[in-house]
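Section: Multi-chain targets

For targets with more than one molecule, the full set of components is provided together so that the structure can be written out for the assembly as a whole rather than chain by chain. Components appear in the order listed by the source. The example entry contains two components.
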Amino acid sequence: MTNYLNGNSEHFILDSSVTLLKGLDSLKVIDRTVSTNLTRMDNLGRQSTLFCDANGRIVDQVSIIFIDGQLLVISDKEESHETRKKLVTGVSWDEDCQVLNADDAITQILIVCKNPDLVLAKFLIESVNLRNDRVLEHGDLLISMKKYNHCHIIDIMAPKEQLDGLLTSLEESRSKLGNLGRWDFLRINNGIPSLLDSRGKLPGDLGMGDLISLDKGCYPGQEIHARMDSRGKSSKQMLMIKSETKLEVGKILIDDVGRIFVTSSATNGEISLSLAICDSIIGDRALLNLPDGTKAVAEMLTSV
Amino acid sequence: MGILGGEGFSLPVVTETPIVDVDLQFSESAKKALKENMNGDEDTHVLVISAQSGGCSGYLYDMKIIEDPKDNNFQRLNVDGIPVVVHNKDSSLLSGILVDYKDTLMGGGFQINNPNADRSCGCGQSFG
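Its structure, encoded as tokens over all components, is:
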């Protein structure tokens, strides 16, 4: 397993959109619209969920943090206008829920690292206290962490005015600041689909079935998700492809495998990594003969 | 203070709701059923028709008889002497709907036909 990290850790300032839902009915309002049951969230809980259209296809993937009765909704910047519009128009006249734009107030920093304690020591935090489904409130920072096959990813939500100080602390911890292209490379290596990969796709085809709560009742896309579930496993598969040449986003026809759809691709200058959806099941690992005559290795991503 | 900075934390409010002059149609059976449900409270109560997120298609209809909110954010219509109100924020979603009433044991009651909806759920309560 290769983590491709330069040193122990690299950090990235994500161009995320942050929305604050304020009011007693906030959780009820967003729960009606997304694919996951959020009603069991408690203070400092963190949950990923999906906004889908009536055909069950993903239109936005968001992360929600419940804090002091308010909700921070972290989503893709490109879809933020539509997502906020859905939230605002979805509030009933007699409900207490205000939708606030926190893009200029709160920022998201991701730290990809081998040993999280080497980075966290600067903040006097131990990695054993960090989880993926909860945030740790540390001063004005909200911190969570998820372990992947190749590394750990620490997620920090911070007030924008503290960004400079935070970046200085990370540099002092010998973490390197990377650009979004570099983040793409590392997230693909860890099998993390972004909205680039998931927009317009069915959650089951991307291994995102755990973001569907079939017991929560109606939400946009629920009928399609229930029908897909009743038919059994998806006939498609999410792949991570390692190749020498960078694959272009789009359809590729591969001998002995059939059609694959490359959803995102990034390179570190030596090797290219891509996420792709395959129309057929190819097993855990396969050697692909690309149309340009080169070879690539595909690994099935069962869980993301 | 925490990331949300307590009470002093102020952020721009998102408002994305176009307001139109609302136009509603009621079938004769709906008018009759509405009068029966109002039960003579027309002077103090109103029928509020509203929309909220949810359902298979994105939005859900709701109808309630409530005490007159006397709020300028509601548009007021008179349907054969019955006051009907729609909140400004729902005006673009609901303008043009036809309210009908079906007197059947199964699937009966008030029903809404929305010609502006791109799609609607089989149950008739959700539209988008």
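Helices of chain B lie at 28-38, 91-94.
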